[in-house]
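Priority: low. Protein: NAD(P)H-binding protein. Input follows.
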Amino acid sequence: MKNVNVNKFARPRLLVVGCGDVGMRLLPLVRHAFRVIAITSQPERCAQLRAAGAVPLVANLDHPATLRRLKGLARHVVHLAPPQPAGHTDERTRHLTAILPERGRLVYISTTGVYGDCQGAWVDESRPVAPRNARAIRRVDAEQVLRKWARRSGSVLSILRAPGIYAEDRLPLERLKAGTPALRGEDDVYTNHIHADDLARAIARALFKGLPGRVVNASDDSDMKMAEYFDAVADAFDLPRPPRLPRDELRQVVTPALLSFMSESRRLRNNRLKHELGLTLLYKKVVDCLQQRKPGVR
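Result:
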C-alpha cells in the first residue's frame, strides 16, 4: 500500500481547465498516467470532480487573482475553457498564459469555425483561417496567444479544432420538439461532428503524441448537410422531421446565433487525427451513435 501511494504522487500533474462534459469524459482516460487537477469556477462541482478521480481547485479565468496559486502547478495542461461571450479577443486565455509553465505541454480545444464559410469545400488543416463571427474570431485570437506562449516558453502546443460536439445526451431534441425549421436542400450547408467520447480520446492522444505547434481537425467521417443531421436525429427518436424553408424566410424565424451556424458550409478532412494521433473513431459517423441508442429514450 505504501508503494501505491508513492507512485500516485510521483505521477506528473495534469491541469484540466474547463472540466465540463468533455473534461469528465477525459478523466478516466488520463488519471492512470497523471495526477489530475481540475479547475472549476463552481465550488458545488468539487465533489463530482473528486469522485471522478481529480483534485478539484476553485478558480475563475475571468478573475486573474484566483489563478495565482496555479502558477507552475503542472507541466501538462488541457485547455477546454471557451472564451468569454463577447469581444474579439480571448481574455481568459491571456489570463491563463500568465500562470502556464516553461517547457510544458498544452492541448487546446479550438473550433473548426475558424475556417469560416468554405462553400462546402473539403478542408484540411493547411487552409488559412477566415473567421466570420465574433465567436470564431475569439478562438483565432486564443490560438495566436497560445502559439506565442509556446514559442516564448519552449513548450509543446497541440491545437484540436472541433466541430459540433454531440453525444447521446447532447442532441438537438428540444429544437426538434419545438419544430424549428431547417434550410431547404438548395440552401443547406454541410455540417461536421465529433462524438464527445471521441474528442476526449483525441485529447488523450494529443497529450502523448501531439506534434509541436500542430493543428488537428478533430472531426468524424460524416459527410452530411445540416438538415440531414436533424432528420437522422428525428428519425432515431420518432420525432417529426423539421420543416424546410428558404434562407430568406428562415432568417425571419430563427435567432441570429442559430442563423450564423447555418451560414457556413465545409467538410473536414481528418487524416492527421487518424494517422498522426492514431485515433480509431468509436463513432465514425453520427448515424453510428444514433443506431446504438436505447429503445424508449426520449
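Residues 2-171+192-222+268-281 form a domain with the Rossmann fold fold (CATH 3.40.50.720). The first strand starts at residue 13 and ends at 17.
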